[in-house]
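Annual report, structural modelling task.

Input specification for the acetyl coenzyme *A complex:
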Amino acid sequence: MSVGILGTGHYVPSNVVTNKDMEKIVETSDEWIRTRTGIEERRIAGDDVDTSDMAFFAAQDALKEANIKAEELDLILVATVTPDSPFPSVACRIQDRLGAENAAAMDIGAACSGFMYGVITAKQFIDTNAYKHILVVGVEKLSKITDWKDRNTCVLFGDGAGAAVVGKVSEGKGILSFELGANGAGGKHLYQDDKQHLIQNGREVFKFAVRQMPKSAVSVIEKIGLNKDEVDYLIPHQANIRIMDAARERLGISEGKMAKSITKYGNTSAASIPIALSEDVKNGKIKDNDLLVLVGFGGGLTWGAVALRW
Ligand code: ACO
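The model returned the following structure:
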């Protein structure tokens, strides 16, 4: 047996904010946002929906798809930089709401790479037979920490949640290899300031991401001795279409083989990879036995990737 994903889920708020709407908030244009980032619209949660609400909805969806009861969970890991509060954690909040009475629970802080850190952490507990079922959630309400007066950042982000239940799958399937990394020296390029706003040096983050994402995507494939052309589907962190395309081109795969939910949801940080995964499992783009590469990068700076046989 190996370790893989037993079910996926996601939730996005119903409130759609288009690029045209953004034109009314800051000096920007639909054309600028589309061509520089690939984003067409994003979802923004109302005051009545906090991070743990979105995490809870995505978790329910994943448990249903996995056919696992909340009581069967041993651990809940929630990747987020926008918790309802530093404590209780989002993981503890949803442990209660789900009725996951047998699960330990904690949040993980690795910014946009958080879901990758979560899945790879979950794998270790299952590999050692310490635990059987682990819920990993990536969730952000970035609208809470967005400076709505700063056009450099506010056009980029959105809210949402994605989740996966990690457990044992048949041999040859599941996670085949992984890579995690961090470069704390680059932390100054992407951080939260005293006013709690997300601040970034877009060009520096772009340079880092365009180098690291393709490198990690190729590395997890090479680690298992496979060729790049054997990759069936790529799910990169949805931050900027130009960065995503750099990873896709390095793997030498066509546009149709890459998740592209950035157009609808913008950058949802830790939620972007699990939302894309859940959507593309549900709409049939990801099929049984497909070789997937999931790769993310984010604040820290951090990065993480897995090669996974679905
Ligand atoms: N509308 C119109 N003009 C804008 C906007 C906007 N929304 N934002 C910036 N501009 C202007 C700038 O002021 C600049 O003008 P200037 O030349 O007169 O100074 C001009 O557009 C070009 O700016 P650049 O920084 O060169 O634009 P670039 O092509 O680099 O795109 C972007 C900017 C989209 C931010 C890009 O750098 C990027 O995607 N970087 C990576 C961001 C990222 O991936 N972040 C991850 C965050 S993950 C996390 O942890 C939450």
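The pocket of acetyl coenzyme *A is lined by residues 28, 32-33, 36-37, 111-112, 151-152, 155, 190, 200, 202-203, 205-206, 209, 239-240, 267, 269, 298-299 (CB under 6 Å).
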